[in-house]
Specification:
The chain is mainly alpha-helical and 122 residues long. It contains seven helices and two strands, in the order αααααββαα. A hairpin with a 2-residue loop joins strand 1 and strand 2. The protein is globular and about 35 Å long.
Length: 122
């Protein structure tokens, strides 16, 4: 699938707080924990537990979320298909969309039971 400017804008305007409970719910159903997810978020963005909660409380959009993030230098190693999009083929003009898919891919790997060392690309 191809990313469009409309899709990029739609994702940019979504709030992290609106999706966060769904992330946690699915993880817990699959035997993973909120703490593991926070570890993944911290690896990708540099956000600790307090910062994650602050972003949830202020209802930060994904655009704001990733503007404030210090993306891990190994993030480019996150590859594959998520939500029908091949991450490494998302054009640079849709960098925000790619970053959101990075988070989705790591989350999906966690939910599917992948080992943390592999998720964190160590």
């Amino acid at each position: 699938m191809k990313v469009t400017a409309e899709k990029n804008k739609q994702v940019a305007q979504m709030t992290f707080a609106s999706v966060y409970p769904h992330y946690i719910s699915r993880l817990e159903k699959n035997g993973r924990t909120k703490e593991e997810f926070h570890q993944v978020i911290e690896w990708l963005t540099g956000f600790d537990e307090d910062k994650i909660q602050e972003l949830i409380d202020e209802k930060a959009t994904f655009e704001t979320f990733f503007q404030k993030a210090e993306l891990n230098p190994k993030a480019h190693l996150i590859k594959g298909v998520i939500c029908g999009y091949r991450i490494e083929e998302i054009p640079d003009e849709f960098e925000l969309y790619r970053k959101c898919r990075y988070l989705d891919k790591l989350y999906d790997e966690l939910a599917k039971g992948r080992k943390m060392e592999k998720i964190l690309r160590t």
